[in-house]
Amino acid sequence: MAKELVQDDRYVALTHDLLDVKSIMDRVRSPKAGAIVLFAGTTRDNFGGKPVKELQYTSYEPLALQTMMGISQSIQEKHSLTAIAMIHRLGTVPIGEESILIAVSSPHRQAAWRAGEEALEECKAKVEVWKKEEFGGDEGGVWRANRDGAAGVRIDQSNHEEPAQGPHGPILRPKVLGERGHGPVVHPGNIKKD
Amino acid sequence: MSTAESEAGVNGQKSFTILYWGPATSYTLKEKETLLAHLPISTARLFEMLEEKYAGIKSKVLESCMVTVNFKYVDVSDSASTELVINKGDEVAIIPPVSSG
């Protein structure tokens, strides 16, 4: 059962269930909108080439919902959206399944494209959800951080080959500039406005 | 516990709840606990208490974390960290850099 907040045409939710693309799109569907943009973030099978077995997401739920609603409100106002909806999955998420869905609707497509991207970037920067990558076998898992340069924290303390220490613990690979969970960060501010 | 005792707390100390999220739990090995202190205290004092309990946590975890008290972020910068923000019964949370999405 999803935990959710609804305010006017804004919907935010956290759930342990499979995410359903159609139901999140239907949340923003409107006769006033000529465009719906949907982003689906899916879980990758590797981190920097290292095979990942599954991912586990945990959340400070009341605060995360509050943050998601705050982001929804500011993005809706900024881009005059008809509606916005976002849902994040928690618990174990198998590889290749959706971990986040964001849907936005607006009278015209340009605003929806921009708002969708901006909403995702804001979520990845602020929403109080933490991802642990499970490698399987004896390796344990690694907590990830979206922020540039914030390396993962290893769960397995029995590792004797100590990698270099970063602010959160061992650095398992050099960071790629601007990289976040779903690939390089595109800063919405840098998109050319027409 | 009688009302008088809960008001006075244990040895004059009062309790608050602290939550550890994500990477912070791999240091504390728990997600939640109740701590006793002569409340109110500052976040600087909180960090000292946690360092006494979990040696090394300050430099490895806390310095890159944010802190909420009753679901509101508090300023943990050096200039503001001596404000007395944690009171009896509060829910404090250690918020590491997020990895949502």
UniProtKB/TrEMBL annotation, chain A:
Gene Ontology biological process terms, A to Z: Mo-molybdopterin cofactor biosynthetic process
Location relative to the cell: Cytoplasm
Pathway assignment: Cofactor biosynthesis; molybdopterin biosynthesis
One function term, GO molecular function aspect: molybdopterin synthase activity
Residue positions binding substrate: H108, R109, K124, K131, K132, E133
The keyword Metal-binding is assigned to this record: no
SUPFAM superfamilies for the chain: Molybdopterin synthase subunit MoaE
InterPro entries: MoaE_sf (IPR036563), MOCS2B_euk (IPR028888), Mopterin_biosynth_MoaE (IPR003448)
Stored Pfam families: MoaE
EC code(s) of this entry: 2.8.1.12
UniProt-annotated stretches for the region Disordered: 149-194
Principal localisation: cytoplasm
GO cellular component: molybdopterin synthase complex
Keyword annotations from UniProtKB, A to Z: Cytoplasm, Molybdenum cofactor biosynthesis, Transferase
Enzyme class: transferase
Function text: Catalytic subunit of the molybdopterin synthase complex, a complex that catalyzes the conversion of precursor Z into molybdopterin. Acts by mediating the incorporation of 2 sulfur atoms from thiocarboxylated MOCS2A into precursor Z to generate a dithiolene group.
HAMAP family hit by this protein: MOC2B
Oligomeric form and interacting partners: Heterotetramer; composed of 2 small (MOCS2A) and 2 large (MOCS2B) subunits.
Entry similarity comment: Belongs to the MoaE family. MOCS2B subfamily.
Protein name: Molybdopterin synthase catalytic subunit
Organism: Hymenoscyphus albidus
Automatic annotation (TrEMBL), chain B:
Biological processes annotated in GO: Mo-molybdopterin cofactor biosynthetic process
Residues modified to 1-thioglycine: G101
Domain of life of the organism encoding this protein: Eukaryota
SUPFAM superfamilies with a match to the protein in the record: MoaD/ThiS
Pathway: Cofactor biosynthesis; molybdopterin biosynthesis
CDD domains: Ubl_MoaD
Subcellular location, record wording: Cytoplasm
Gene3D superfamilies listed in its UniProt record: 3.10.20.30
GO MF, any single term: nucleotide binding
Name of one Pfam family that matches: ThiS
InterPro entries named in the record: Beta-grasp_dom_sf (IPR012675), MOCS2A (IPR044672), MOCS2A_euk (IPR028887), Mopterin_synth/thiamin_S_b (IPR016155), ThiS/MoaD-like (IPR003749)
Record GO cellular component, one term: molybdopterin synthase complex
Keywords, comma-separated and alphabetical: Cytoplasm, Molybdenum cofactor biosynthesis, Nucleotide-binding, Phosphoprotein
Keyword presence, Disulfide bond: no
Primary location group: cytoplasm
PTM comment, free text: C-terminal thiocarboxylation occurs in 2 steps, it is first acyl-adenylated (-COAMP) via the hesA/moeB/thiF part of UBA4, then thiocarboxylated (-COSH) via the rhodanese domain of UBA4.
Role noted for this protein: Acts as a sulfur carrier required for molybdopterin biosynthesis. Component of the molybdopterin synthase complex that catalyzes the conversion of precursor Z into molybdopterin by mediating the incorporation of 2 sulfur atoms into precursor Z to generate a dithiolene group. In the complex, serves as sulfur donor by being thiocarboxylated (-COSH) at its C-terminus by UBA4. After interaction with MOCS2B, the sulfur is then transferred to precursor Z to form molybdopterin.
Family: Belongs to the MoaD family. MOCS2A subfamily.
Subunit structure: Heterotetramer; composed of 2 small (MOCS2A) and 2 large (MOCS2B) subunits.
Protein name as it appears in the record: Molybdopterin synthase sulfur carrier subunit
Biological source species: Hymenoscyphus albidus
